[in-house]
Structures are given as structure tokens and as C-alpha cells.
Amino acid sequence: MMNNWQKIELDGHELDWFRGRDTDRCPENRILWLCPDLEEEAYWLHPLFIQNLQLLQLNCVVAKPGPFWYTDRIHHDFSPTRSVQDYLLSVVYPQVRSMSGDLSSKHENKSPSLLIPSSDLNGDYSPLVPPLTRIMIGGIGMGGLGAIRLGLRYPKIFSTVIAIDAALDYWEYWGEGSTLDDLYPTKETCRQDSPVLQLKSDSVPEQLNLLTTNRGPHWYRGNDRFHEKLNALGIPHRWEQANHITSDCDLFPQMFNWIRATLHKPIALL
Fold first, then answer.
1. What is the pTM of this model?
2. HSE on the CB side for 77, CA within 13 Å?
3. Which terminus of the chain has a lower count of CB atoms within 10 Å, N or C?
């Protein structure tokens, strides 16, 4: 891959890694973790996106688990033994958390004993994050749903969430032949697992940013409900609406403005 991007395979699944941080210029290890949508062009390869990564001294990881909605449920097409969340937190995260440069060289000969066992997924991950590491997570559509899921469940890992047209009403697609039909026995079970219903006021990231656009009107209602519940619980967040989006490039200014605002805040030492 060009422009400092590397294509890596971890445990049979592909991810992209970008080195945008110059360790001599930026002592803080800044990582942007992107969750891809169901069918999405690789907007992170766009020259303007790369330029912003370099400008803000950001490393970037794009894990690609497939069409499994970032759930904590096992689907045999992904893995017979672990869910997407299990994979992201027990396989990808331990590799990413200490990366400041070449991910592939760090991954070679990595001892399995350094990976987080599945039994620890509900534990406290905070001691594993180096004090000068800041991980921000974001995505569009299903990827926005994934960013919210992971950000709410592991707020000590992901300090900032950026969710664009997040697929919070994903459960509406249950029964239409997607992987949701295999992951959940009923539509109601699927709905009960949504971040809107799982939201807890004592488990939120430092920065929670929501953007809805004219490209995702079918996801607006779920974001509106999520916004209302966040307000009811007194949880600080931002919700912006953009009605003139014609391409992914139009999303970059808002996305990187939120990231820039996050970088101006001190890291909360764990």
C-alpha cells in the first residue's frame, strides 16, 4: 500500500495500518481506530484524509471484521470460537495499543501469551494503555454503530467516539436475510442489544460525537432517540446535522475538527 499504509493480517482477518506520527515531533501516541461500514469505499486512503492524519500526527488502524455488526455474539462465518468484539479487544487491541510505527514488525513472532484472554474481556483494561496513548474510535453507518458499541463498553480505552450516520436502528433489518438473523433469535433480542437500550451513565467516553447527514436518513431516528436518552441521563455529547454531504470528503472537516478538539484536551491518566 502507498502513502505509509500497510496491509496486515491478524488471526486470519485483515486490517490496514497507517503511520502518521513522527515520534521526534509528537511524544503522544495518537491512534485513530476506524470501524468500516457494511459496503464502504476506503475513504481512509483518500489523499485529503491522509493529509489530515499527517497534519495531526495520527497513526490509524482500520480493522475489517466483516458484516457482523460489531456484536459480542459468535457467528461461525467470522470465527467458531470468538465474537467480533472479542477479536477486536483480545487480538487487535493488544497489538495496536503499543504501536508507534511499523505494525507488521511488531506483530512478527508475537507471543500468544501477550494477548488478552477472552475471560478478561469484562475486566479493567486501563493498566494496558500506556499513559501517553490516546485512542479515538470512529466510523460511518455500521462502523458508527461499532464505534459507539466499543466506546461505551470500553471508555477507558477509547477516549473519543466519532459516529457518523450510526446504524443504531440496525435491528430493523432483522429477518431480511442478513447476518443479524444468525446472530439473534428474534428481532426483539436484536433490539435489546442496541446501544440505545444498553446505555449506562457511568460508562461513557470522554468525548462522544454524533453526526447525521442527508446520506443516511434511515439512521436519523435511532440517532435522535440516542441523543434524547443521552440528554435524559445528563451525558455530555455533541450531535451535529449536515444536509449537504455529497461524498466522504465532505465528512472530513467535521471529523478532524472533533479530533483536533480532542487533542487539545489533556489525557486522563488511568
1. 0.87
2. 11
3. N
Q: Provide the terminal-to-terminal Cα distance of the chain, rounded to the nearest Å.
A: 35
Domains identified in the chain, total number: 1
- 160's enclosing H/E stretch is strand 158-164
As a dihedral over the C-alpha atoms of residue 154, residue 156, residue 158, residue 162, rounded to 10 degrees, the angle is 90
pLDDT in tens, 89-116: 999 998 887 665 444 444 443 333 233 3
Q: What are phi and psi of 48, to 5 degrees?
A: -70, -40
Q: Which residue type sits at 191?
A: R
CATH number at residue 65: 3.40.50.1820
pLDDT of residue 268: 52
What's the CA gap between 243 and 238, in Å, rounded? 17
The predicted pLDDT at position 44 comes to 95
Q: Does the pLDDT value for residue 88 go beyond 90?
A: yes
Domain enclosing residue 240, as ranges? 5-263
